[in-house]
Amino acid sequence: MDSGPVRRGICLAALLAASLCQQAAAAPAEPRAAELLQLLHNDCGACHGLSLKGGLGSPLTPQALAGKPAASLVATILNGRPGTPMPPWRPFLSEEEAQWLVQLLQQGGAR
How many whole angstroms separate alpha carbon 106 and alpha carbon 65? Predict the structure, then answer.
């Protein structure tokens, strides 16, 4: 049995999945983007430090977030961390907005 077509299909699916994971999160339209940046610096900064370099919560600098899967960070933002002071932000953010914030943080663009 020739497994070539199946193997090519699996490779194509893997490439497509990798491509989708690397797509940049779409920036929300103004004024929502400004609201999210204010939330990030004021609300997140209350625990993670106003400069996002750490405080009660861990730093949110690109160096501190390097190597951490974006999906895991998005889940933490949306669902919080039970048993810790990290609250769920799902009532205030969509998943796309959380993805955008994670992208900004990981790229150092949240200043």
Answer: 6
Q: What is the pLDDT of residues 35-91, one digit of tens each?
A: 999 999 999 999 999 999 999 999 999 999 999 999 999 999 999 999 999 999 999
* CA 64/CA 80 separation, integer angstroms: 18
DSSP-derived 3-state class of residue 26: coil
What homologous superfamily does CATH list for 31-107? Cytochrome c-like domain (1.10.760.10)
87: phi > 0 → left, psi -120 to 50 → alpha, else beta; which? beta
Q: pTM here?
A: 0.77
Residue 87 in tokens: 């609250």
